[in-house]
Amino acid sequence: MFTGIDEVDWAALRHAYGSAADVPGLLRGLASADPAERETALDGMYGAVHHQGDVYDSTLACVPFLLALVASGEVADRAGIVELLVSIGAESAGAEEDAEDGPRTRAREGVRAGAEVFVRLAEDADPAVRRAAPGALVRFLDEPARVLALLRERCALERDDRVLHALIESLGLFARRHPGHAAGALELLTAQSTAPYDPGLRLAALGQLAHRAPDRLPPDLVTVAVGLLRERSARRSTGRHGADCPHADTLASRLRRLRPSDEEGSQLLRTLHRGLGDRLDERTALLKGQLTSPDAVDRCNAVWMSAGLFREWRADWAEPVTLVGAQLATGEGRLRDAAVSVLEDLFDLAAPAADDLAALVASRPDLWVRRREHGAPALGGPLKALARSGDSRATPVLAEVLAGQVVPDDLGHVIGHLGPGAAPLAPALRRRLGEVVPDSAGTFERAVPLLSALTALGDAEAVPEVLRLLRGPVRLRSRDPVVEAAVRALEAFGRAAPSLVIPVLRELLETEYAALAAGALWSVQGDASAVLPVLTGELTDGTPRRRLAAGALARLGAKAGAALPGLRRMVLAEDLWERVSAACAVWRISGDAELAAPVLRTAWTENPYTRLTITACLAALGPASAPLHDLLRAELAARRRHLASPSGGYGSHDVLDDERLVRACGDVLGGA
User: Fold this and answer.
1) CB-based contact 669:636 (threshold 8 Å)
2) CA-closest candidate to residue 502, choices 539, 465, 463
3) pLDDT value at position 259?
4) 162, 176, 237: which is closest to 204 by C-alpha?
5) Share of the chain above pLDDT 90, in %
6) CB within 10 Å: which end of the chain, N or C, has fewer?
7) Is residue 390 within 8 Å of residue 355, measured between CB atoms?
């Protein structure tokens, strides 16, 4: 297995952490008789030699030895090594990384050169090895007819369900990679999607057909799929106690495909959902079937799966969200926690589940605050989800939390979602802000969320507490987020702020916060002559300060005419966001759509995250924004979210921003 390993100058090769001198030890560890040593060695290979999917010269040097290891019947845990080889030889998503004679190309060719070993592994005595081999066969053996024959033979002979699942996935992969030979693979998948095959295998085959040959799916697909899921669950539940509800995949499980039975079921339905794509009526019906399953594991898998559907697509999700909310009353803690986690990130879309959230919050005060082993306490998930949904029933509970000894630092961030219903919280928020000691440890963590809440409420009575932070002894150091949040609060208070804020803001005009302070001063005082010279001067500075200046100048409208030369130069800036800010300002100040509209149209297409900013500009322009209304109509007609993706992580505001974009587009067109 290791013939020639000492002839390689490993010290001269590199991996993610420098010299590859330790790689021979990792390779030998893969062949160890000690399971812990094998596991550590495999982790080391992923952690250094194939770090985050990268390929190094040491990775290339390892390929022959890895092939020798999987060929040896004396090595245990060879399935993990096969999966490592598949990952090393996988095609890259980036064309530049797959350039001719690039490291990925050479790695793929190295694995292909030894692909004959995967033929033998397809009938290995170890079912884990047989499960890993079909995917490698399809990817690296360049004989499509032979590969299809091998897959057909293994489907006929195999008796292990998990290996059969892998074979079905490999048939789908084969159909994609070899369209000229796909007919035979699709015939096999069609046959396996019907009785008398195992319900799990039939679901797996339906998922592959949804991707590769949707015309072969049964007309009553949802009914069939839900029935198969429940039949599979009934068989799996035999002898199982409790709901082993999975959480999000770990890195290790994704790399090694360690799928317990419940995760395997989730993968089956996930594959089917992805294959159905934009057929949202069927996907919604399928999700409802999953969420009403008698089996708690199926419902939990469905809850996690629903998050991707909600994040990626625009639709009426009221009924599925209601069903997610119904899981909160279950006695299964993991199922409840999964539902809470999904609902937290839906914001307004979680409103159909508000009754269930409110019931959970009322019955479980112990869930109001989440105390962590490391780090400050955080607002509990059920209460956070209820507040983010805009439900006023969160207000009295938040008041109790604010009155407690320990106030979660993130509490202030949910206040804005409650709208006017959170007004009763203003006195407690002011009191808590008054307790923050300026320039002490934790000032940022405590002050910024509270300032955010008072800004959202527009509570001008908080001015003394806000000014106290601005007058702190070292408050004006570089880019202090507390200063920025305090100035934005004063800006939000606007004309309701007492005149005593004006000298403070004027003082800030002499600092690096000049653009921000000038915008606030305009909101409070409305005197263009006091801020125009400052804002015009700020246009000569670099990003992000001149972006702030452009935004403030846009609000001045025609009174900012003197800034137009600088703004027109800024329209040509290299930075996309600077161009957008300048174009919006030029259009609002001068009405010059001929200059601004093309810039904004290009930015809208190039970066979807500019769309909220651009739509706000169009709203301010009113009927004059008509040259870009076609973009808004196209946005409203789109079914896929442009500001969210199914892979977005928990804690993301992408769905919230996308929903705001849709509403803003509708408001602009409705106003026009």
Assistant:
1) yes
2) 463
3) 37
4) 162
5) 82
6) C
7) no
* pLDDT tens profile 328-366: 998 788 899 999 999 999 999 999 999 999 999 999 999
Burial letters for 587-605: b for 16+ Cβ neighbours within 10 Å, e otherwise?
bbbbebbeebbebbbebbe
Cα-trace Rg, the chain: 30
- For 40, residues 6+ apart whose C-beta sits below 8 A from its C-beta are 29
CA distance 250 to 243: 19
Q: How far apart are the first and last CA of the chain?
A: 74
pTM to 2 decimal places? 0.86
Q: Are the C-beta atoms of residues 347 and 417 closer than 8 Å to each other?
A: yes
In this structure, the chain runs to a length of 672
Q: DSSP assignment of 629-668, as one string?
A: HHHHHHHHH--B-SS--TTPPTT--HHHHHHHHHHHHHHH
Give the side-chain half-sphere CA count within 13 A for 279: 16
- 640 - beta bridge partners? 313
Are 401 and 408 within 8 A, CB to CB?
yes
Task: Name every residue whose Cβ is closer than 8 Å to that of residue 36 and which is 6 or more positions away in sequence.
Answer: none
Cα angle 206-210-215, degrees, rounded to a multiple of 5: 100
CA–CA separation, 487 and 475 (whole Å):
12
* CB atoms closer than 10 angstroms to residue 173: 19
Which helix (H) or strand (E) segment is 130 a member of?
Answer: helix 127-140
Task: Tell me the average pLDDT across 59-84.
Answer: 95
Q: Rounded to an integer, what distance in angstroms lies between the CA atom of residue 558 and that of residue 553?
A: 9
d(CA 610, CA 603) in angstroms, rounded, equals 7
Number of H helices, E strands in the chain: 36, 4
pLDDT of residue 1: 78
pLDDT in tens, 440-487: 878 889 999 999 999 999 999 999 999 998 875 445 555 688 999 999
